[in-house]
């Protein structure tokens, strides 16, 4: 007779570990496939993360489906862009974030 045992594997800190790994990869600029440019300064990011966290970036990425896409955002200040990326990737709240959230 065939055994039909089922096992459920679970890692309690899986979500937290994945988020930390993604943030570390971004900090080390590993596997980045999109560049955000603002007033001559750049931030390298992951399309999948930006797309998942922002309908604004999702639409741009879908419309411009290009490897190594560069998005120029000179209509905002660089600190606002940094705050938005920090919010989406690092899940951190820093000074000025409330003002940056109104941009998009």
UniProtKB/TrEMBL annotation:
The lineage of its organism: Eukaryota, Metazoa, Ecdysozoa, Arthropoda, Hexapoda. One of its GO terms (cellular component) is nucleus. SUPFAM superfamilies: POZ domain (SSF54695). Residues 32-85 form the BTB domain. One of its GO terms (biological process) is regulation of transcription by RNA polymerase II. Keywords: Nucleus. It holds the Pfam family BTB. PANTHER family: BTB DOMAIN TRANSCRIPTION FACTOR, FI07618P-RELATED. This is Longitudinals lacking protein-like. InterPro entries: BTB/POZ_dom (IPR000210), Dros_DevTransReg (IPR051095), SKP1/BTB/POZ_sf (IPR011333). It comes from Orchesella cincta.
């Amino acid at each position: 007779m065939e055994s039909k045992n089922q096992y459920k594997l679970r890692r309690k800190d899986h979500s937290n570990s994945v988020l930390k790994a993604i943030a570390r990869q971004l900090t080390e600029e590993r596997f980045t496939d999109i560049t955000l440019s603002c007033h001559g300064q750049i931030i390298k990011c992951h399309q999948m993360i930006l797309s998942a966290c922002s309908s604004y970036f999702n639409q741009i990425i879908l419309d411009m489906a290009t490897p190594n896409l560069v998005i120029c955002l000179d209509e905002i200040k660089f600190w606002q862009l940094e705050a938005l990326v920090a919010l989406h990737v690092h899940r951190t709240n820093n000074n000025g974030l409330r003002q940056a959230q109104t941009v998009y």
